[in-house]
Every structure is written in C-alpha cells, then in structure tokens.
C-alpha cells in the first residue's frame, strides 16, 4: 500500500470544479499564480490548501458563492459569505430597489426569482401570465419554470410551445453546468417529462425577421409577443443576492405594446 495517495475531499472537489470549467492544471495554476506542482498536490490530497487558496481557486473557477461556502467547510474553514433571509433588515435597501424596478416596469410584466426559479417578487402586470395558470401551481413557493411548462400552467396558452420550452430547458441546463446544483437537475428532469404537443428544436435558430426567441401567448382571440431581459446584481457578496435575478418582459411588436398600455389605463 506504500506510495498510494488518497485524494482529500477538498482536493477532489476542486479538481471536479476545474474539470467542469474545462481548465487544465496549467491554465488554472497560471490564473492563480501558483505552480502546477502545488495545484497537483492540492488536488491529490498531498497538500491541504489554505483558506486563502480555496478562495483564490474558487474565484478563478467562478464557483457560485453558495458552493464556495461549502468548499470552505469541506476544507475545515468557516464560510465567509453570509446568506441573509430576503426579509432581513440588512436587505431593506435591496428590497426597495427591486420594488422600484418592478413597479417602474409596469405595464409590462416583471418578476424576481431565486436560484431555483422560485417566485420572490413580481409586479402587478405579471397577472397577465398568472391569470392563465392553475392556482395549484401558484401556491408558495411558486416555481416560474414549472408554472410556465406544466400542462396546467402557461404552456397551454403558449403558441410556440416547443420553441419556448426548448429555450427554457436550454437555459436551465446551462445553469446546471455553472452551479452543479442537484435540485436544478431534478427540476430539469421534471420539466423534461411534461408533454409537449410540438416538436422541440435541437438548436435555437431565428425565424424570419426574428432577433430573439419570442414568447407568444394566446389570450382569448389575441396573440401577445414578448422578449425578456434578465438582470442580476453586479457585485454580490451575499449568497441570497447572488442568486436573485430579475426577468423583465417587453412587447415584441407594436400591437402587444398598445394592448398592454390600454390595459394599464383601464
């Protein structure tokens, strides 16, 4: 048994994150300004990384803050990133800013979601979508992806169901690649199992005259067309803030814009 080295859990996990990001040992070592020998020793368990080394490596690997805390614990160190409840006093200014963004976006729908795509906040215009969703899908914690693709959800009113479903599943799959979150993997598996009456494109390609994947929703005799923009906090140092995202929907044609403005005045 002499000479056999068993990888320390922190080393093995750092190696997994490096491989997930498709970095060679040389590339990561150069970014972290350490020798490849040192990095190799860390990954194989021959050397235990310092707290600062864990932080440097996870920063260059763009590991999400939640996972950085977990890796610090595995290495024997205390987490450094706070995880505040959304209603905590220290997030009061953040909540006010989000409310201002949401209200300012009326009469167009906007929503704030967490990492798992659970609904956190929304503006009044979101009712344009939620009124088309079965109530059981809106019970807290309401998941906006589930509410979008479930047979009792918005899916039955989406004209381009196959295209929009493929877009959402692709977005979720990319998020899984970034975070390695098993909860998101389970959500992707669930959503993929929902029926879809239309073929799903293997690759997102623009239709005639399209520059974005549109969300086309049938509301009565009308078809509304939207595109969305997703925004995140630029310098988060708190796990909760790092995992929040604002998705703002905009009218993709003049007819949709006119209808939303008229509804806001009614």
Model description:
It holds the Pfam family MLTR_LBD. This is Transcriptional regulator. InterPro entries: Cro/C1-type_HTH (IPR001387), Lambda_DNA-bd_dom_sf (IPR010982), MLTR_LBD (IPR041413). This protein is 45% helix and 11% strand. It has 266 residues and is an alpha+beta fold. It has two domains: 9-74, lambda repressor-like DNA-binding domains (434 Repressor (Amino-terminal Domain)), CATH 1.10.260.40; 89-265, Beta-Lactamase, CATH 3.30.450.180. A five-stranded antiparallel sheet has the order 2-1-5-4-3. α1 packs across α3 (36-44). The longest helix has 19 residues, at 161-179. The protein is elongated. The protein starts with 8 loop residues before the first helix and ends with a helix. Residues 1-7 have low confidence and may be disordered.
Mean pLDDT: 92
Number of DSSP helices? 12
Strand content: 5-15%
CATH architecture of the largest domain: 2-Layer Sandwich
Instruction: Give the number of domains.
Output: 2
Order of helices and strands: HHHHHHEEHHHHEEHEH
| Spans of at least 5 consecutive residues with low confidence | 1-7
Helix and strand composition category: alpha+beta
Radius of gyration: 22 Å
Quick one: how many beta strands?
Answer: 5
Q: What is the helix content? A: 40-55%
CATH topology of the largest domain: Beta-Lactamase
Q: Termini, distance in Å?
A: 79 Å
Q: Order of strands in the sheet with the most strands?
A: 2-1-5-4-3
Q: Tell me the major beta sheet.
A: 5 strands, antiparallel
CATH class annotation of the largest domain: Alpha Beta
GO molecular function: DNA binding
Protein name: Transcriptional regulator
Pfam families: HTH_31 (PF13560), MLTR_LBD (PF17765)
Domain HTH cro/C1-type: 14-68
């Amino acid at each position: 048994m002499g000479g056999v080295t068993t990888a320390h859990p922190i080393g093995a996990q750092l190696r997994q994150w490096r491989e997930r990001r498709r970095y060679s040992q040389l590339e990561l070592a150069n970014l972290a300004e350490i020798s490849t020998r040192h990095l190799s020793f860390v990954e194989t368990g021959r050397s235990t990384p310092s707290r600062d080394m864990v932080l440097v490596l996870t920063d260059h690997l763009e590991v999400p803050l939640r996972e950085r805390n977990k890796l610090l614990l595995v290495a024997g160190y205390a987490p450094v990133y706070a995880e505040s409840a959304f209603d905590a006093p220290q997030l009061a200014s953040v909540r006010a800013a989000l409310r201002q963004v949401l209200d300012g976006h009326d009469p167009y729908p906007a929503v704030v979601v967490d990492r798992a795509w659970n609904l956190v906040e929304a503006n009044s215009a979101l009712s344009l979508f939620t009124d088309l969703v079965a109530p059981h899908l809106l019970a807290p914690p309401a998941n906006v992806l589930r509410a979008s693709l479930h047979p009792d959800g918005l899916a039955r009113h989406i004209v381009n169901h196959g295209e929009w479903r493929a877009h959402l599943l692709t977005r979720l799959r990319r998020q899984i690649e970034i975070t390695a979150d098993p909860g998101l993997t389970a959500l992707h598996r669930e959503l993929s199992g929902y029926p879809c009456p239309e073929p799903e494109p293997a690759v997102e390609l623009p239709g005639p005259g399209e520059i974005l994947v549109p969300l086309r929703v049938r509301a009565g005799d009308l078809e509304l067309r939207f595109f969305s923009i997703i925004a995140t906090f630029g310098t988060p140092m708190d796990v909760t803030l790092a995992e929040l995202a604002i998705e703002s929907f905009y009218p993709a044609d003049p007819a949709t814009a006119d209808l939303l403005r008229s509804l806001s005045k009614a």
